[in-house]
Amino acid sequence: MTGTIIAIASGKGGVGKTWLAITLAHLIARTERKVLLFDGDIGLANVDVQLGLTPKHDLSEVFFSKAALKDVITPYAPNFDIIAGRSGSGNLASLPAPALTALKEQLLALTKTYDFIFIDLGAGVEEHVRTLATIAARCIVVVTDEPTSLTDAYAFIKLYNAAGPTAIDVVVNQSQSLKEGEKTYATLHKACASFLRLSPPCLGIIRKDGKVREAIRKQASLITHAPHCTAASDAASITIKLMHNAGLRQKA
Fold it and tell me: What is the pTM of this model?
């Protein structure tokens, strides 16, 4: 059985996309599944920064030193590995199509090793973002109640859906309450249904929680810093759905 690739996307930055990718990956790793988090935010990578890591290897070596993707993996926690990007490197953001194609092939090969591979995509709808997203079995679009977040998320869904039939889910982040989160989702869903004839389901709502900011400030995973807080509980509900969708059960 090969692993499942899940892309985490957003129309704009600042909605908690990277934080969500880290949290979901860490939660699933704690169920004794092997998980890899790939920092695909090419040019603005920050997974390693949020986790307080100084990796010996990163993605730039794959493109400029001919290293294999499997050779730049950094262990973070039991069953949880990452492939760090290169923050601030504009070179990676302008990679040619053949390099991106080779990268996709190597990521697909790693599904033989990992149960889940999460791709933290860059914000926006640039070509390299959409290219990496095409190998995912599911794409989670993260939104907040900010109008710009909703309009940019709609733009991403429109372009992504046009590229091919892949499952799209929505996660509402930083919501004041579950009720407010439902309203935010309803706004995006109405636009998708009206203009795209598409009804992406709401995978979950994550309520605003001060523990998230604390964890980011301390450069730690929320699952290490405050595993029982509200945001962690909301994220855990999402991981249960992801595992169910992948045909997996939590191990006893």
Answer: 0.93
Domain tally, the chain: 1
CATH number for the domain that contains residue 66: 3.40.50.300
The pLDDT tens digits for 184-202 are 999 999 999 999 999 999 9
Residue 250 lies in a domain: no
**Residue 41 in domain:** yes
User: What are the beta bridge partners of residue 116?
Assistant: 4, 35
Contact 124, 11 (CB under 8 A): yes
CA 14 vs. chain centroid, Å, equals 13
**Which tops the pLDDT comparison, 247 or 173?**
173
Contacts 24+ apart (CB under 8 A), 180-188: 180/145, 181/205, 181/206, 181/207, 183/145, 184/143, 184/144, 184/145, 184/150, 185/143, 187/150, 188/143, 188/150, 188/153, 188/154
List pLDDT tens digits, range 58-93: 888 888 888 899 999 999 999 999 999 866 555 556
Residue 210 structural domain: 4-245
